[in-house]
Amino acid sequence: MLKDRTRTLAYMRAIMENPHLFAGKTVLDVGCGTGVLSMFACKAGAKKVYAVECSKIVDQAREIVKRNKYDDVIEIIEGKMEEVELPGPVDIIISEWMGYFLFYESMLDSVLYARDKWLAPGGLIFPDKATLYVCAIEDAVYKKDKIDFWENVYGFDMSCIKNLALTEPLVDEVDAEQVMSDTVPVLQVDVATVTKEQLCFAAPYTLTAARSDFVHAIVSFFDVSFTHCHKPVTLSTGPYTHATHWKQTVLYLDRALAMEAGETVSGTLACRPNSKNPRDLDVAASYSFTGRNGSFSNLLRYRLR
Amino acid sequence: MLKDRTRTLAYMRAIMENPHLFAGKTVLDVGCGTGVLSMFACKAGAKKVYAVECSKIVDQAREIVKRNKYDDVIEIIEGKMEEVELPGPVDIIISEWMGYFLFYESMLDSVLYARDKWLAPGGLIFPDKATLYVCAIEDAVYKKDKIDFWENVYGFDMSCIKNLALTEPLVDEVDAEQVMSDTVPVLQVDVATVTKEQLCFAAPYTLTAARSDFVHAIVSFFDVSFTHCHKPVTLSTGPYTHATHWKQTVLYLDRALAMEAGETVSGTLACRPNSKNPRDLDVAASYSFTGRNGSFSNLLRYRLR
Questions:
Q1: Which residues form the Protein arginine N-methyltransferase domain (chains A, B) (predicted)?
Q2: Average pLDDT score over residue span A71-96
Q3: CB of B3 within 8 Å of any CB in chain A?
Q4: DSSP-based three-state secondary structure for B192
Q5: Cα–Cα–Cα angle for A297, A302, A303, nearest 5°?
Q6: Is A281 found in the same domain as A163?
Q7: Cβ separation of B153 and A36 shorter than 8 Å?
Q8: Are B67 and A12 an interchain contact pair (Cβ–Cβ within 8 Å)?
Q9: Is the pLDDT score of A1 beyond 80?
Q10: Beta-bridge partner residues of A236
Q11: Within a 10 A sphere around the Cβ of A45, how many other Cβ atoms?
């Protein structure tokens, strides 16, 4: 993850360019991993950093913090955020909690728990805003490779696997040239106030074709922003910026829509944890399109697992 | 896996070009997946195919076999090879059992079990031979990216992770130009006779530098062969042939060896399941080198997990 420079440099800027926010403050790092964000906070002048991590990487974090001589400021705490005790409230929470499609295997629940239990009134969260976007893409080549492939596999008909593949959002890099519509936000998350319940959402979207082309898929991606910074920092995972390890999430449609420039397709994007396996995400996307080349609508169900 | 054409086409050729071996025969497919090998066997004239699979893909396999009208010949059996019952012995066992480094998460144990319990005397196994090879490579660029990276991570010293990374064999594609020695077999497996115990091995190797260059890593890869075919078929996963999903397995050394053309490096490659977690493989590689540029030796331990 550290090798994702776009990601790490955004956090580095957000923290280290703002020593006026960190100097003398108490900081909580939720899911500290190797401890890199905690060390950024030290460099920005934090007085104390509690770095909480429940995976075995915590052993490396301890050694790294010691070797870099931050063990007088950073206290590594092994355990789940929901179960550990801190000596008192903190001024700032920092966390890199985002998953694929923003929410898949994300640690946001733990951040919200930490916020409600440990953040002092007026305290700050880094990042404090997240936005989920959608756009429409043309993807004839990949769809042929990844979906239609199953119609004729070495001479055999395996289209039952095609149907299964269609229900799996594909985490992949989308080329900017494939995007054939505008990009619109479908969900804005204020990390300072959002509740866990609000993360199950159903949000409408309307996309307008920027050119005449086919739509093979709806693509989703996210931004997170650090708006408390003197010069706000945004980490974007969209197709127009530097690639990140989050890539984009591609929801293939059951049919190609032949759209003319200026025509619109509307629908709803919905998401919630799977009831049997809460680590999985159930995603539903509806679309409704009426244009010169026909009128089509459907409700498609996907599962991120 | 089906998208690995090199793999699937090798099996396709081995089976479908040899109807004289399959016509009227009873076949067992160990770990049938989507059922593609079983259907190849049908096309080659098999009278009956038992296709055993313990994962949930078995539901798709059933539907695929039915849709392609082989359900009168292929009997899909859900379960572990070690637990299922067949009506009687089989003439041929087919299986795609190979894992990374040949043995990692491989199904060879199940194939050997099936061989001992169900293969008729004189029966055939596809593939029937496997060979593990090693060669030495120059890999300055990747080593810098993947290993030395940890020495300075955004200004922090994380070299404890470097030490950890050095113990993890890297499954990656090696360019043929990186290979700077000859390629030698270290283990030959006769699937018809090998025992499970013989798969824990320690085998010597000697590699000769083909040019003056640095050695950063020992690379391992494998071939499997179908020697019963009229025209023997070999599926190779080495750096000189078409890439496969198995790629190659790279064992980084603790130091770069500066070898002159014609000099040799010797050692032993050993492998066995980890005693606590038998899905993991413990791999040990020793090297001993004396050349114009010094004399070095060590025993390195890796774990494939």
A1: 128-291
A2: 98
A3: yes
A4: coil
A5: 170
A6: yes
A7: yes
A8: no
A9: no
A10: A223
A11: 16
User: Tens of pLDDT along A169-212?
Assistant: 999 999 999 999 999 999 999 999 999 999 999 999 999 999 99
pLDDT tens sequence across A20-48: 999 999 999 999 999 999 999 999 999 99
B153 contacts on A by Cβ (under 8 Å): 2, 34, 36
Closest CA to B179 of B206, B208, B145: B208
Rounded Cα distance between A127 and B170, Å, is: 34
Q: For residue B45, which amino acid is it?
A: G
Cα–Cα distance for residue pair A155/B64, rounded to 1 Å: 12
User: In chain B, which stretches have pLDDT less than 70?
Assistant: none
Q: B122: phi > 0 → left, psi -120 to 50 → alpha, else beta; which?
A: left
Q: A92 and A135 in one domain? A: no
Asked if the structure places residue A106 within a domain, the reply is: no
Beta carbons of B154 and A60 less than 8 Å apart: no
First to last CA, chain A: 20
Query: Taking CB atoms and an 8 Å limit, are A2 and B154 in contact across chains?
Result: yes
Q: Residue A15: which domain range?
A: 5-96
Q: Does B286 touch chain A (CB under 8 A)?
A: no
Sorted by sequence, the CB contacts under 8 Å of residue A143 that are 6+ apart come out as A216, A217, A252, A256
Residues of A in contact with B161 (CB under 8 A): 34, 60, 64
Is this complex scored with an ipTM above 0.90? no
Are A163 and A252 part of one and the same domain? Answer: yes
B51-74 pLDDT, tens digit each = 999 999 999 999 999 999 999 999
Q: Which of A63, A75, A78, A105 is catalytic?
A: A105
- Residue A145, pLDDT > 90, answer no
pLDDT band (50, 70, 90) for residue A3: confident
| A260 counts as catalytic | no
In chain A, which residue's Cα lies nearest the Cα of B156? A68
Specify the number of domains making up chain B: 2
| Mode of pairing for the β-strands spanning A248-259 and A213-226 | antiparallel
The CATH number covering residue B42 comes to 3.40.50.150
